[in-house]
């Protein structure tokens, strides 16, 4: 039996149901109930629970509409304080049901999930009084806190958070679980975390010996997650298990000294049996896992296929059973729509991958072979303004479950997977089930470089090939010859010939005001995957930030953005490799906009098919758009991190142009003393023979050094290339070395002893075959790095030198 609200009386905003008055002889009760609220169309609260004592009423829980066609359980610890109490539900939408009300004296015993809606469950923190600690609360209008919690996705939902407002020294705050005994077995710890955009503080998860808390193992660290600064709720998980009694400690750490405002929050902490499984994978039988449904998608549901208007569906419509015959799935109910409707199921934020695999089952139900609904799967970069990359589309009703297995390649930035369901006419549904995501390829087939599309490829040695130049404003345009009267700085060599005589496309603007221009390929026909590779260089001198963009276009309109660079300078040539999917005739467009700048492009190659995963024979990273595959050594004490220069505690920049640069750094300004060593590893390299390695370096920590090694991956051997000591300003260093290893990595090993202030930083790392260009010698056939000296200075020599 259950209690159901049929309708709300006319002229009333809500209906209420209340418990009898009661008095508990304890300060708390554990109140449990089940509710059913399927397919409500309200965006505000649909149900709220109040605790009434005398004349006071306090809302202790509320929820919006439910997408799930299932009963849901709520457990709340309520403060009664030995007073006469009444519980009351206000319901703002009909078709709500309640069942299994239960009230027990005392606090709720912690089960596997804590959503922090009523208390902190069995999670506790040390009792010492300090400003920096975990707090339970809601968004109180602060920009640094999440706009809504993860559980209810409302501004009134609760979560745990730390703030650094008013805290000027490095601090940490621990939130600890109850003690689990050794018979607990293998479990998966899951929680959702949020870091504000400007936060460089961290979350650490530790497994501690219950009898000796100094004996502990690190399970998870936010700073080594590629998604950890995405300013939204993110899923974290770690498999746990121990042979002794243990506790879990979730710690928030303020790493920087000084006053600033930022926050860290966690919600929905769960400890469930079994090992953790891949993120962005879900069978939907219990819930939607880490997938989210936008609140505006009122027809995107989680259930067994029940529809709002059965009369518009095909005759004898029966909801499809899920692929396992006994569970739930996600579906769009387009049975009663009156206009085009778009629903989106969105994955968690995923880290960059060279190769990955997505598989799922889908069902498009409608009139036979009708095209009234379409399912699209897209990859959406988190970069602002980036267009979504479609990888699958089907708009024909199939009335049966179909499986799709699809490779994902070349995602160089954080991204999400969008399952977009589009209904254009009522009388259809689209269902999705059994999503599996893996960071490995779907098949073991080797990736070979696909066929070159010659009419979209160009090395500019004989002009612009088949590309068409279009200028947008001003008199400047893309050219292949350096303007004779320009005082700008151009790349001293091209990519094709590696000489000063080679050609490349360039957009040079001497003016102090912004000018833009573009060039594009001929239209490329056909549907499917393509791969584009090219080299580019940017050098700008005025305050206006240059913009360089590669995109596909149709009828002069941008369809999808393939690459964007918005920084004043690159350190030499940079290479781009990107896979993209086209559904129709599209052209490749290169666009530049800047003032006092040179934007250069060379060696454009476009292929049919996806980009292969190849080892690198050239590396050039300025860390502005990510870590370029560089990986910090896992170190409990101190780790290399990608930081904005302005965020490094002890770093002062003399050059104003360098303030906003991103660097890889070890920041010692945390108030602790550090002794040890830790390394930063490059991606795998396969360039051999004579190799040039150059990088910018800064060390302003006394007693610290950097040793640069080449590591033989196959034989686990290393050979030192150079040692860098104290240098308090940014300097660039060049080293030539002979490499005999077939597969190797570059390692920057920092060594430090008793250091509590300062920084070690590297930036603009360049590795290429051959000698370092223009550094050791110059035949003046092309521009070198030599500079002329004023005549007032002389160069003296000594005999024998």
From TrEMBL:
- List the InterPro entries: ConA-like_dom_sf, MAM_dom, MAM_domain-containing
Lineage in the entry?
Answer: Eukaryota, Metazoa, Ecdysozoa, Arthropoda, Chelicerata
Which residue range or ranges hold the MAM domain?
15-116, 112-278, 280-444, 456-613, 619-774
Q: What is this protein called?
A: Apical endosomal glycoprotein-like protein
Fetch the PANTHER family from UniProt. Answer: APICAL ENDOSOMAL GLYCOPROTEIN PRECURSOR (PTHR23282), MAM DOMAIN-CONTAINING PROTEIN (PTHR23282:SF101)
**Cellular component annotations (GO), alphabetically ordered:** membrane
PROSITE patterns, per database record:
MAM_2
């Amino acid at each position: 039996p259950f209690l159901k609200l049929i309708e709300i009386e006319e002229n009333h905003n809500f209906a209420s149901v209340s418990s009898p008055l009661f008095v508990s002889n304890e300060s708390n009760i554990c109140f449990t109930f089940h509710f059913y609220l399927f397919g409500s169309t309200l965006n505000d609260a649909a149900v709220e629970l109040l605790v009434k004592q005398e004349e006071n009423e306090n809302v202790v829980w509320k929820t919006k509409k439910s997408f799930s066609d299932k009963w849901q359980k709520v457990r709340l610890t309520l403060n009664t304080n030995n007073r006469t109490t009444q519980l009351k539900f206000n319901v703002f939408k009909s078709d709500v049901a309640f069942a299994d009300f239960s009230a027990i004296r005392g606090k709720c015993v912690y089960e596997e999930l804590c959503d922090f809606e009523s208390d902190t469950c069995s999670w506790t923190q040390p009792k010492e009084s300090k400003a920096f600690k975990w707090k339970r609360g809601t968004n109180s209008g602060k920009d640094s806190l999440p706009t809504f919690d993860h559980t209810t996705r409302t501004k009134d939902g609760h979560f745990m958070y730390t703030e650094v407002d008013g805290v000027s020294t490095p601090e940490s705050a621990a939130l600890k679980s109850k003690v689990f005994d050794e018979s607990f077995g293998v479990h998966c710890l899951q929680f959702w975390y949020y870091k504000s955009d400007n936060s460089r503080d961290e979350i650490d998860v530790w497994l501690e010996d219950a009898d000796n808390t100094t004996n502990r193992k690190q399970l998870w660290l936010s700073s080594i997650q590629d998604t950890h600064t995405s300013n939204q709720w993110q899923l974290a998980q770690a498999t746990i298990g121990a042979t002794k009694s243990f506790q879990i400690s979730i710690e928030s750490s303020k790493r920087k000294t000084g006053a600033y405002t930022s926050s860290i929050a966690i919600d929905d902490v769960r400890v469930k049996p079994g090992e953790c499984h891949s993120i962005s994978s879900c069978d939907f039988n219990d819930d939607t896992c880490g997938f989210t449904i936008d609140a505006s998608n009122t027809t995107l549901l989680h259930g067994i296929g029940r529809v709002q208007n059965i009369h518009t569906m095909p005759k004898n419509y029966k909801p499809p059973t899920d692929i396992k015959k006994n569970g739930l799935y996600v579906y769009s109910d387009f049975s009663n729509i009156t206009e085009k409707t778009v629903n989106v199921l969105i994955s968690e934020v995923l880290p960059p991958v060279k190769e990955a695999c997505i598989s799922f089952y889908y069902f498009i139900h409608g009139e036979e072979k009708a095209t009234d609904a379409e399912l699209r799967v897209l990859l959406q970069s988190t970069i602002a303004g980036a267009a979504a990359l479609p990888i699958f589309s089907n708009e024909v009703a199939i009335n049966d479950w179909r499986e799709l297995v699809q490779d994902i390649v070349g995602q160089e930035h954080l991204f999400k997977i969008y399952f977009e369901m589009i209904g254009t006419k009522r009388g259809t549904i689209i269902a999705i089930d059994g999503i599996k995501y893996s960071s490995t390829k779907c098949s073991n087939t080797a990736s070979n470089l696909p066929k070159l599309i010659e009419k979209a490829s160009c090395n500019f040695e004989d002009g612009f090939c088949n590309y068409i130049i279009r200028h947008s404003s001003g008199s400047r345009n893309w050219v292949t010859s350096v303007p004779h009267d320009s005082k700008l700085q151009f790349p001293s060599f091209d990519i094709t010939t590696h000489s000063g005589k080679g050609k490349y496309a360039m957009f040079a603007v001497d003016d102090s005001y912004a000018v833009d221009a573009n060039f594009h390929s001929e239209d490329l026909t056909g549907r499917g995957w393509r791969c584009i590779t090219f080299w580019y260089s940017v050098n700008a001198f005025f305050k206006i930030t240059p913009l360089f963009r590669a995109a596909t276009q149709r009828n002069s309109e941008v369809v999808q953005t393939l690459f964007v660079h918005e920084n004043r300078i690159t350190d030499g040539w940079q290479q781009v490799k990107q896979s993209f999917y086209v559904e129709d005739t599209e052209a490749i467009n290169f666009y530049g906009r800047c003032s006092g700048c040179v934007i250069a492009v060379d060696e454009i190659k476009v292929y049919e098919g996806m980009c292969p995963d190849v080892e690198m024979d050239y590396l050039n990273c300025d860390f502005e758009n990510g870590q370029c595959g560089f990986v910090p050594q896992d170190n409990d004490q101190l780790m290399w991190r990608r930081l904005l220069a302005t965020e490094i505690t002890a770093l002062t920049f003399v050059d104003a142009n360098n303030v906003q640069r991103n660097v890889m750094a070890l920041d010692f300004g945390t108030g602790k003393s550090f002794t040890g060593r830790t390394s930063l590893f490059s991606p795998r390299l396969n360039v051999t023979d004579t190799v040039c390695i150059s990088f910018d370096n800064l060390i302003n920590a006394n007693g610290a050094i950097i040793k640069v090694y080449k590591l033989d991956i196959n034989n686990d051997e290393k050979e030192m290339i150079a040692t860098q000591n104290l240098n308090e300003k940014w300097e660039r260093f060049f080293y030539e070395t002979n490499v005999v290893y077939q597969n190797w990595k570059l390692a920057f090993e920092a060594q430090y002893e008793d250091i509590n202030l300062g920084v070690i930083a590297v930036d603009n790392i360049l590795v290429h075959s051959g000698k370092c260009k223009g550094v050791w010698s110059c035949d003046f056939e092309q521009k070198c790095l030599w500079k002329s000296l004023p005549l007032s200075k002389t160069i003296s020599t000594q005999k024998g030198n």
